[in-house]
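Checklist before submission:
- one chain only
- standard amino acids only
- sequence pasted in full

Submission:
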Amino acid sequence: MNNVVDFSYSFGTPHRITVAMPDSSSKTLLDLEKGGCKMSWTYDDLTRMPLGALMLPTTSKHVWFRPTVDGIPFADSRWTRSEGHLPVLVNTYFNSSSSVSMKLEIVGGEEAAIVRIDITNADDQERQFQLLCGDTPWSSAYNPNWVNPNDEADVLLAGWLDRADRILVVGIGAEAYTSNPTSFTMSWDVKPGESRTAWIIRPYQAYAADSEKLRIKDWEHDFEQAKQHWRTLLAKAARIHIPDEAVEQCFLACLADIFIMREPVAQGYIAPTPGTEGYRAPNSIEPLLGCIALDQFGMHQEAEAAFRMAVEQQEDNGDWTDPKGWTHLMWAGSGFKAWTVMEHYRLTGNIEFLQEIYPRLTASTRWQEKMRASTRIDAGGKRTSTYGLMPRGMGDCGLMNDEDYYGVFYPHNFWSLFADRLTMEAAQILGKDADEKEFRRIYETAREDLVASLQLGAIQEEDYRWISGVANKTCGSRWGALNAVYPCGVLSAEDELMRGTIRYIESRMSPGGMPLNTGWLKEGMWVAATLDNVAQFHLAEGNGDASIDYLYSTLNHGTPLITWCEERGQEAGTTNCTGDRQHLWTPAAVVRLLRDSYLMEEGTTLHLARGLERSWLISGKKVGITGAPTHFGRVSYEIEYDMELSKLVGKINFPEDCKMEEAILHIRLPLNYEVISINSVSGSVEPSLISGGKLNWKAPRGEVTFEAIIAAAAS
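Returned file contents:
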């Protein structure tokens, strides 16, 4: 596969980016298409909604920006992010020769969404630039100048369906304004070689009496301050060195969007949401993956602040699956919560946190055991495929029981069993021997029942078997089947059923390299599931080639704004898009897969560089990660290629007191290269070269350095 980021399989317009400050309720949706940009928002927020409920703020306000030059729309336009990754829109309009242009750069500030307008005339004649700003003619908004010519024409007021004098937007810096009932047009006459800068402001809370204050405010300061806030926040993450600059920009954009899709909710919590509009409500499934990603990059306070709401939603009987919330009857919720809190403990080493959270883990496991006990019923002396499993529940993620949304779904059983395994491990860590014995019995019994069910319920093909969503049925999506290996650990990647499952899932692929039927859309694709399920499975089994290919495919199915809808059709430019237009699961999966490609724990072993693109190590650029938390403490490494001497020079910093039994560095080179010798330069432990071009250190401590001599592989 030609691994280049070019967004060649992006879905059709509009393409969305949301601008805001981190963790803000004041979000501004920007939808891009050729010739214009639509800005949408609401004054509602999640603080008045019941915790965890699927209740959404209604997007009720809209304005369009439509630029022209000499009365004619610009020939072309493009859109990207400021600095390549900030959640700030750069939308440029230009003619065929690019001699005249208008650029809209839009940031979500503390007090307003700020549109900076930059106009350039590099032509040899004077040009008139205009920017229409307004809503449809039947909008409830109005331009007061249209009603009273003595009023200013540079503002739109709410009119109806809101406080009438609320300012929606105000224009600043035009040479002239023309009013229409629900819009205004800003105009500039620009001579050759000249440029102009102007502004449009969407204040989060302002009224007609505030208009003059808005006109004289230093918006340049607020504009730059908002961008600097994002730079400072992203700089807190452990630094990852990716030779492919486009991939690094995508990583940073995805990291930023985890903060875009968080905001205050009821009872003083901050919570992540799966989307910015259609799924703008917190739940305890995919938003928690973003919290794990933040913990993996050392942003522990930010992670805990966001997962607290989900973790603290638990019934008195121990039910941890949000029976009052969006994900009620989705038994996987306990697994996502347990994984989140255990990763937080393992990546911080905070034993007090584990002691605090332990009662929630134990209550959940005991409740789940009661639920499974209710299904341990023989049918005529024989076990059924549902024996010992969690009872009927809601599938979601495209899982179906024939035409029924409710059933006994294998993926939810993988995740609920995973929660019980983590409870057992927490008891062991805390030295609670009696509890550990109890939870081991619960886990092993439940696993035995689940594995027996998988044997009964697997789907038989001509020469292999695979795991479906429901025993003995092929209906619904393929989501979650591979989670039996990673992260849930129910089966090994080499298990016959798992080999058959990955074979079946990859038996039908899209033109852009995505498995089909991974979500709700028949013959469609859920890009996040490809990365989160399929790529992570391959990475866990040690197939870095498949994993990195899926990463590039995922990036190329995004928009130039580095955003993804939830599900979509196969073709480039498809208009068959469902779910939220900007969905969280994919950016969270991108961040997590890249981290695991650089550092991935497997029991007491740490894998380094397990999933790197093969060309990266010989790119001549630094490859590595700095100060990243692992289950063994913080680890850093860097590797660079000396082209003249044909050698890789590397340095790894392991914790001095870590409990790691071994570290494996995967030297992933293009297939026509190989490692021919290793020179250990320093370190308390000598590495050994093992098959596949891997370096192995037993019980490493402190700093180690090495040189690897590489050469063209023998033909």
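Reviewer check: The two ends are 22 Å apart (CA to CA).
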